[in-house]
Design a protein that fits this description.
The structure is a homodimer of 374-residue chains. Helix content of chain A is 31%, strand content 18%. Chain A has 374 residues and is of the alpha/beta class. Chain A has two domains: 13-155, Sulfate adenylyltransferase; 159-248 and 254-373, HUPs (Rossmann fold, 3-Layer(aba) Sandwich), CATH 3.40.50. In chain A, the strands form three sheets. In chain A, strands 1, 2, 3, 4, 5, 6, 7 and 8 form an eight-stranded mixed β-sheet that branches. In chain A, strands 11-10-9-12-13 form a five-stranded parallel β-sheet, sandwiched between helices. In chain A, strand 10 (206-211), helix 7 (223-237) and strand 11 form a beta-alpha-beta unit. Chain A is globular and about 65 Å long. The interface between A and B is medium-sized, with 28 and 28 residues.
């Protein structure tokens, strides 16, 4: 089994009775709630808490933790305007909305230049970028320190598909898979994605469909609709003994290249050996070059990343090929290729037209249309 | 560029004026003629000649040359009944039919137990096995020693596609390919093969279609018909900037697992980094287990082999998948899958029926039918 990032799988899950009474309570926003869950279950190993200033600065400037381990995105807790004052050495309880989610030992309180963070990690400080918008709402003060988290999965949707890294590792072991490719997605699986997954699955033992279900921007398709798509397509079109579906409860950063490495490393913690990186992975708008999220891996040695990035082109159905292909394998022209933009598909669904089966499986088209009609 | 097997690309090609006059002339059979060409051009690096007894025995017993380098099949020159006597230290000229092909320094003359060789390397001594039939016709005396070979490619068919390892390496370099997958074949390319090649091509820079055109058994499809198939399918269905066609002038041994490793290692000499190994690679009849030619690679470290074997299942068109797949990626049943045996296809062609486009591209079906009709 592949080693977790940094060598040790973190587990910071505690039971509710371990939460101290009568200490300061700080407020998590949605991304921080997601991060707390991810750190707690070991998905963010070797992180044991929200970053202190030295790790934060090292990550922003060098894409590494202070100890040199590759880490490409800040994982930070921001002081909120209405939160009470805290001091280094305090133990604080962390709340999301009305619910206690965990606790933190305050090790560091530090100021950050948020637009510098944006330029380095998101490669832009344009306020139209959803990641920049997020940063613009923060105070500029971060609190770092080790955390503990409650396991509140029983209250969450998709409970059956909410495996933590320990559990996916047990699952892969039970299935006898030695090589496992993870597919990150925040979209329904259309035939283009299915093709990349199946090309990978020809070479490895198992496929983990690992949809991100943490915070996304408002116009992304809701997770419950997507989960229905995943369950349906797996049932109809994938061999059940070689596929697994579990959710990835992280928030999207839309950080493109840096998030591709982040996504890959976190999947290693789940026990995956290969990770699919398509064009413009974790991108948004036109902020990133088509291949930037693939090329960024060249900054690190294969041993540092360890999980193998499988770098693909966009896929399409080609009438002349009579099948799925990419520009790497199809010599024909655009006229032969069935290509629909996301915008076009949304327009078709809104108009009650099912996208063609060369673009998306009919069962998936129907789920999407039903969701639009609601 | 990947290192040749053993670290150095051999080149034992000489011009005709270097062939000595008035020395003993020995006779090459067809396989030996192929081997002489392969050794001469460096395709069999690090071999510099036909094997001496110590290398032969080491290869038969341990799948390694005496120096420990992995080598799975004997490459030997057999003394023929009508050949004149030779002694260690002699220089001899090697003739195929009426043509001088090269020369050899006689370093060793040794007896071999040919049926022991058969059992170890072919895993059978059944006389119906074409490799056993070949051995049964030999004298049992082998002559080993370094060779030199003439470059007679201008007299051979498919001259434009007869690149030696030096030349394929230059070609790959010119094309900017860093990763190249080789496809060994002694059959036309049907859609099943095309699928395996294209799955590979999604992950690597270039594809070398590398058909074996040396001695094959009589009922294999002739090389000229196959070459027409390869040229046609490449032109119609493959991106020209990512594919190359060149021939592999080796003889078939039908040695299954041992020949799979042999085929892989030789492709490394041509500069390839990946090698497709399907089910029953280089097999014949029912002599080898379905996966034996894939499993055998586990006897060696990845560094010893270096070229990466890509291990695939049989592919087929699946109507329910609406595309090509294998048992690794398709959950549907046999009824959905278009599968035709070689026997069935031959019968269809003989009856003037084109095999369906799900099995073979129409242009290829037509070439095969035209060849049958001749």
């Amino acid at each position: 089994m592949i080693q977790p990032h940094g060598g040790k799988l973190v587990n910071k899950i505690i039971s509710e009775d371990r939460i101290p009474k009568n200490v300061t309570v700080l407020t998590l926003n949605e991304r921080e709630k997601n991060d707390l869950e991810m750190i707690g279950c070991g998905a963010m190993s070797p992180l044991e808490g929200f970053m202190t200033g030295s790790d934060y600065n090292s990550v922003v400037e060098k894409m590494r933790l202070e100890n040199g381990i590759v880490w490409t995105l800040p994982v930070v807790f921001s002081l909120k305007e209405d939160d009470p004052q805290v001091a280094v050495g305090d133990t604080v309880v962390l709340r999301y909305q009305d619910e206690i989610r965990g606790m933190m030992e305050v090790e560091d309180i530090f100021k950050a230049d948020l637009m510098h963070e944006a330029r380095e990690t998101l490669l832009t400080d344009d306020e139209h970028h959803p990641g920049v918008q997020y940063l613009k709402e923060l105070s500029g003060s971060y609190i770092g320190g080790k955390i503990n988290a409650l396991d509140l999965r029983d209250e969450e949707p998709f409970r059956d598909h909410r495996l933590i890294p320990e559990e996916t590792r047990i699952l892969f072991n039970k299935k006898g898979w030695k090589s496992i490719v993870a597919f990150q997605t925040r979209n329904p699986i259309h035939r283009a994605h299915e093709y990349l997954q199946k090309v990978s699955l020809e070479m490895v033992d198992g496929l983990l469909i690992h949809p991100l279900v943490g915070a996304t921007k408002a116009d992304d398709i809701p997770a419950d609709v997507r989960m229905k798509c995943y369950e349906t397509i797996l049932e109809k079109y994938y061999p059940s003994d070689r596929t697994a579906l579990s959710v990835f409860p992280a928030a999207m950063r839309y950080a493109g290249p840096r998030e591709a490495v982040f996504h890959a490393i976190l999947r290693k913690n789940y026990g995956c050996t290969h990770f699919i990186v398509g064009r413009d992975h974790a991108g948004v708008g036109d902020y990133y070059g088509t291949y930037d999220a693939q090329v960024i891996f060249d900054n690190f040695t294969p041993e540092e990343i360890d999980i193998i990035p499988l770098k693909f082109e966009h896929a399409f159905y080609c009438n002349a090929c009579d099948g799925m292909a990419t520009a790497r394998t199809c010599p024909h022209t655009g006229a032969d290729r069935v290509f629909l933009s996301g915008k076009k598909v949304r327009a078709m669904l809104n108009d009650g037209i099912l996208p063609p089966p060369e673009f998306t499986r009919p069962e998936i088209a129907q789920i999407l249309m039903d969701a639009v009609a609601k």
